[in-house]
Write a structure and sequence with these properties.
two-stranded antiparallel ribbon; 25 helices; mainly alpha; about 400 residues
Length: about 400
């Protein structure tokens, strides 16, 4: 307690310029003691936005005694709680950047656990701030808790908590926070794995449909930055996630046309080409939701005069995608569900039955179901396999 009071008292006695200088020194402390500081820049903190550099041979905590490391972190924690820091916008920004530096150079779970660490909690708190610069700095700091070289269990848990936090923050729909969230989702996209990348891209693309053109432009720029950072073309970035992204975009074709316009501009293609390219992924959902208007738009994009029935039956992979999708949905009467939805959008299929449709290409349908299973939680796998053997007759 006396040490805390001493640190706070010393900080209070400093002039404002000296307080700023102290935070900058603290911000470089972990970099300097790790041997990664070169001409004022740290190759770990300031180099790779993906935060995927190989683990340093010696972290700052290994260079210094454990006691000294803990003392430094204790001082930082004490200073964060001082009224002088809490009341100064500039000092809070410098403090969160110093915390990022310490986090980047440690693997100590005590400081890295997003659920319990003081520094993690302070970072999350800053993302609620009314101060734009502080929110953005906190978003950059958050990514340091999610980096690839952390112990797997800690990393996975931190990523889950971070996604839950950002989803909750997004749900508040505060326009003033849109920039913060877009940049934070961009950080998630470049730092985390494929599962998180899929969600981050969905969030960024959703912002392309925002009524505020400035927000749309910022999301577009962040998508370009993610593509460049991951060294992927826009098409290569989006293609693995067509099953989720295409559906999210196409279902808003009528209500938020700017979303697909912006996405296709990002991809360097046309709306019509995108609709045809992703028809296999979108048709099942559109049949389920009975969106005849959008189905006809896709059919017309494929070729003028094409009917929804043609779209559902040809090429065979479209029918396989529809049947595979419905056969893996929870239903007490699979056949009724399939036929009723198909005839709702394509009345000409009224006399068809599930068995005859399955016989067109049971192997292709089975492959579709296995792809769906790969994206499904393990609890649903037995159901997929059961349907596969009983209805398709392949087992």
């Amino acid at each position: 307690m006396q040490e805390a009071n001493f640190s706070s008292a010393c900080y209070t006695s400093l002039h404002d310029a000296d307080r700023e200088r102290l935070w900058r020194i603290l911000g470089h402390y972990a970099c300097a003691t790790s041997g990664t500081l070169d001409d004022g820049r740290c190759v770990r903190c300031d180099g790779d936005r993906r935060l995927t550099r190989s683990t340093l041979a010696h972290g700052w905590e290994e260079q210094e005694s454990a006691g000294q490391s803990n003392e430094i972190l204790s001082v930082v924690r004490q200073l964060c709680d001082t009224p002088e820091v809490q009341s100064s916008s500039k000092h809070r920004v410098l403090a969160i950047l110093a915390i990022r530096s310490f986090v980047m150079h440690t693997k100590n779970p005590e400081h890295l656990d997003l659920n319990t660490s003081f520094f993690a909690q302070w970072c999350l708190k800053c993302m609620h701030s009314s101060l734009r610069e502080l929110r953005i700095a906190a978003g950059r700091t958050l990514s340091a808790f999610l980096r690839t070289d952390l112990p797997k269990e800690l990393r996975d848990n931190n990523r889950r908590l971070a996604l839950d936090f950002l989803r909750a923050l997004s749900a508040r729909e505060m326009t003033s926070h849109d920039e913060t969230l877009i940049l934070a989702w961009g950080q998630i996209a470049v730092v985390c794995g494929d599962r998180e990348l899929n969600l981050a891209l969905l969030r960024l693309i959703d912002y392309l449909g925002h009524p505020n053109t400035l927000v749309c432009s910022l999301a577009f720029s962040e998508l370009e930055a993610v593509s460049e950072c991951l060294s992927l073309s826009p098409e290569a970035l989006i293609r693995p996630f067509h099953r989720s992204i295409a559906v999210a975009v196409v279902q808003d074709l009528s209500t938020k046309p700017q979303k697909i316009q912006c996405l296709t501009e990002f991809l360097g293609t046309s709306v019509g080409h995108f609709l045809v390219l992703t028809q296999r992924e979108t048709i099942p959902f559109l049949v389920l939701t009975k969106r005849k208007d959008i189905l006809q738009r896709i059919a017309s994009a494929r070729k003028p005069g094409t009917s929804i029935q043609d779209l559902c039956l040809s090429p065979p992979r479209n029918l396989a995608a529809v049947l595979g999708f419905f056969l893996t949905q929870p239903s007490t009467d699979v056949e009724h569900s399939v036929i009723s939805h198909l005839t709702e959008v394509a009345p000409g299929l009224h006399d068809s039955d599930l068995a005859s449709l399955v016989k067109i290409d049971p192997v292709l349908i089975a492959c579709e179901m296995l792809e769906i299973a790969a994206d499904t939680d393990e609890a649903n796998l037995p159901k997929v396999c059961t349907v596969d053997s009983s209805i398709l007759g392949l087992g």
